[in-house]
Amino acid sequence: MARALNISEAAAMALHTMVVLACAGGEPMTARAIAGKLHRSEAHQSKVLQRLARAGFVASTRGPAGGFVLARPSREIIMLDVFEAIDGPVGDVCCTQTPAVCDGKSCVFGQLVSIVNRQVRDYLQYIRLSELEIKGLGRLVRVQSTEPHDSPDNGSAT
Fold first, then answer.
1. Fewest Cβ atoms nearer than 10 Å: which of 30, 70, 110, 150?
2. What is the three-class DSSP state of 147?
3. What was the pLDDT predicted at 6?
C-alpha cells in the first residue's frame, strides 16, 4: 500500500527505540532486545542505535550487563530532534521534480506538501519523549515483546 506521508523506516525505528529505552527505566537494553520488541532486524537496529549515540540521545555500556540507555532524561528529549538526527531537517517543500523542471507555481500538489511537512514538524517539535512514555506506548511495546525475559509481564497483557 502506498503511503502519503513517507517517514523513513530508520526514523520511525529511532522514535520507537527511544520510547522502548524510556520505558526500560534506565536498565541497559541490547540491540537484540530492542529489535525483538520492535520486530525489526538486529543489524538495522544496531545502525539506528549508532546514529542515536552519535547524536547524543543514547549511551552504551559494554560487558555482560551492558546495552543502551537514554543519554539524558526523557523529559529533555524532543521528538523532532530525534527525527531530524536520522532523516535531516524537515523542510517546507518536497518536490518530486528537479528545480529545472518545476518552478513550484504549477505543481499538482499545490501547497499540500508544504502544509503537511509544517504540521509534522510542528507536531514533533512539541512532543517530548516523556509524553509518549506516559501515554502507554511503552506498555504496548512490552506486551508485543518476543523475548519474555525482557518484559516484566512476560509478554502477557494485563
1. 110
2. coil
3. 75
Do 138 and 22 contact (CB within 8 A), yes or no? Answer: yes
Q: What is the pTM of this model?
A: 0.77
- CA distance from start to end of the chain: 33
Class of domain 9-88+128-150: mainly alpha
Is residue 29 within 8 Å of 21, Cβ to Cβ? yes
Closest CA to 18 of 65, 90, 78: 78
Locate the domains of the chain by residue range.
9-88+128-150
**Regions of the chain short of the pLDDT cut 50:** 140, 142-158
- Cα–Cα distances (Å) from 7 to 3, 15, 24, 54, 101, in that order, read 9, 11, 25, 21, 25
